[in-house]
Amino acid sequence: MTVQELLLVLVYLSACSAQLIGSRGVITLREGVEYRDPETVEASQQVATFAQQFQEVDDEIADRRSHTNSFGPRQSEVTPSFKTQLSDNVNGRPLIENEIFDFLDTRFIEPPRELQFNKFND
């Protein structure tokens, strides 16, 4: 980022003022009612103008970086193929309801009393 761009960002940031939402949250207006606060509209226009200018600069930076990060021609790229190393790999079998140990089953486990509560390390 050049010094001019940094200065431009700092000028915009110093001209902005933040607004807290508060405990009420965001207010939703009735259908058909438009909120047109002149300060908000002006701030939105300034942000949109800045974003359009900054987008051009950001696109140029991204384009330069994409060219500098390429180490070789794209045609020579090799797509890797992944294969399972085990020859006797078994996918498994469908389980019946009795064989599945799930969250509901953990609710019925009763560990020994000495393991049910935390103890202080002495």
Which features characterize this protein?
mainly alpha
What does this structure look like?
The protein is mainly α and 122 residues long. 39% of the residues lie in helices and 0% in strands. The chain is extended, with a radius of gyration of 31 Å. It contains three helices and no strands.
Summarize this structure briefly.
The chain has 122 residues and is mainly α. The chain is built from three helices and no strands.
Strand content: under 5%
Describe the largest sheet. Answer: none
Multimeric state: single chain
Percent helix, as a range, is 25-40%
Mean pLDDT: 78
- Our Rg estimate from Cα atoms comes to 31 Å
Weakly predicted, low-confidence segments: none
Number of strands: 0
Q: Spell the H/E element sequence.
A: HHH
- Ends: how far apart? 58 Å
Structural class category: mainly alpha
Number of helices: 3
Approximate shape: extended
Give the topology.
Elements: H1 3-15, H2 38-68, H3 103-106
